[in-house]
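Hey, I was hoping to borrow your eyes for a little while. I've been staring at a protein lately and its backbone has me curious. You're getting the sequence in one-letter code plus the fold written as tokens. Would you mind checking whether the tokens look sensible for this chain? Here's the protein in full, and shout if anything looks odd to you:
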Amino acid sequence: MIGLVLAAGAGRRLRPYTDTLPKALVPVDGETTILDIGLRNLAAAGLTDVVVVVGYAADAVRARQADLQARHGVALTLVHNDRAEEWNNAYSLWLARDHFAAGALLVNGDTVHPASVEQTLLTGRGPSILLAVDDVKKLADEEMKVVFDDAGQLTRITKLMDPAQAHGEYIGATLIESSAAAGLAEALEATWRRDPNLYYEDGYQEYADRGGEVRGAPIGDVAWVEVDNHDDLTRARDIACRY
């Protein structure tokens, strides 16, 4: 099993920080970036072979690759998304299909969370795809919301639903077992070919609709944030210094 980070996005709402840097390289604790935290968490979980999907300002990641490897004790493989500024991240994850074929623990390159999230996913291994879910936070319109049936199988994952109907928020971390890899790759390809602006979570929906097993693992009452804008960045800097 490998670690996998999606870090191809431009993060336009974080300008001027992202004028020359991808969102994953925005500092959140001194010189520590979002990507540093993701790599640190994966290494702490024993996942030292890590694939990073890059795109926007990819040269900035390449320039730091050796330092990131030395600092976190990981071996990095960079996968380039040449459509990162045009298409959404369903395509980014699909590009890594040959790498997650052996199984992967995926983290978004714009999420600040503690290493306990990765440990929760690894402890819960069993389902083909296991999503880290915050079932404590009060939800609003922007969150990636999830619904599970009585047996625990995913029935819906989308931002476009009534928050009151959701069981929680998917926080951008997933355990993908090797047994799910081929089916997920097919579902992701169907998703981005249908509409390249769709999210990889839409690929999860496609996979589940085709009969694939997708379940959730509650992360508990932990501090985390998806960094989309300057308010999120302020919160990330408050959170990151705690762990």
